[in-house]
Amino acid sequence: MGFSVRKIGKRGTYSFVAVFFPLAFLVAMTFFTGGEVFAEDRGDPTPPPSGDWNITGETVISGILLNVTGNINVGGAATLIVTDSTIQVNSSHPHEFTMRVANGASVIITRSTLQLDSFVSEPGSTLEISGDTIITTKGRMLARSSTILFDGVTVNNIAPNVGDDEDGEDAIVILNGDTDSACRNVTIRNEASAAGPTGPGEDGGRGGRSTLISNVSTWYHSSIVCIAGDSLGGGLGMMNGSGGHGAPGSDAHVLLRATDLEDVEIQAHASDGGSGARGARNPAGNGGDGGNGARGGNATVKIDCDASLQLLDCSIQAVSGNGGSGGNGGEATDGDGGNAGIGSHAGDALVQVRVVDDRRGRL
């Protein structure tokens, strides 16, 4: 048995409080076999050639590949059961289509792959996913379901790339599960995208933020990794001009409200601040000033519990971003050289475990 915490960064604080109790929970698993698609009602048992797929009754997908060019809507009181299958959403640009699970609906997935654009489920819905299922989303995995039961699930929530001089896109995972929830053998990678390439003399773009928020009460043999997108330095000064400034590093946050964590790895990695660029050289006047570096991003892992907390054999790591360096001033043949840019500080790193209970054990 062991427990380790790492906080990396030039500045930051951390604190821990926990109580240890035996771990016991049951993860519901549902298995289905076959090679067909059928529905109890006539609401759209299979996706149309194009457009939204609306599911209004019990629909079973087993042993097939489905391509969907549109939204997937699982209506209230409907049930979607997917086994040994692949559902692939074909979109022409990020966040074009969404899989939506309405209040009162249930989604049960086993040994399958979902390649989605965005995912949103409403409170009052149920998600039961198991059997080495893989779910891929493009920066938006918003599971607000009241019941979340994951066993043997990989979630890759990767924000899409952006164009030149654009800020990176955020990546966010929400797992509500405030009624009945457990995650066992779950791997989550939540990765924001980097800023786009910086043009000459332009300020660098900021990388996307990475955030995971969960109310799932029990985690067992699982991994959560949140990675902020890279922020970029400024562009080189041109035509006697100053160098561009670096963009601030982006933040990474993991916020959990839980009661049981055993053999769980949690990592939050912020990105470095961008460096300032060199000012332009000037053979006939003053050189351009160097751009300023920017502050590194902040990394936070917070675990809250309203009663007793079991925290066993876990590794928690928060890594803040380094500050960016200032750019050199431009050289001058017949004039003054440019002023150098100013460097900046690293971000803050915080790991905090709080238990609202007077019965406290020491780590």
Give a topology summary.
Elements: E1 4-8, E2 14-15, E3 37-39, E4 53-55, E5 58-62, E6 65-68, E7 72-74, E8 79-83, E9 86-89, E10 98-101, E11 106-110, E12 113-115, E13 118-121, E14 126-137, E15 140-143, E16 147-158, E17 171-175, E18 180-191, E19 210-214, E20 218-227, E21 252-257, E22 260-269, E23 299-305, E24 310-312, E25 315-319, E26 349-355
Parallel strand pairs: 1-25, 2-26, 4-7, 5-8, 6-9, 7-10, 8-11, 9-12, 10-13, 11-14, 12-14, 13-15, 14-16, 15-17, 16-18, 17-19, 18-20, 19-21, 20-22, 21-23, 22-24, 22-25, 23-26
Antiparallel strand pairs: 3-5
Structural features:
mainly beta, 363 residues
Q: Sketch the topology as an H/E string, one letter per element.
A: EEEEEEEEEEEEEEEEEEEEEEEEEE
Mean pLDDT: 85
Rg, rounded, reads 24 Å
Number of helices: 0
- Structural class of the helix and strand makeup? mainly beta
* Shape, principal axes of CA atoms: elongated
Relative helix content: under 10%
Say how many strands there are.
26
Please indicate the percent range of residues in DSSP E strands (runs of 2 or more).
Answer: 35-45%
Q: What does the largest sheet look like? A: 15 strands, mixed
Task: Give the low-confidence spans.
Answer: 1-43, 358-363
Terminal Cα separation, in Å? 12 Å
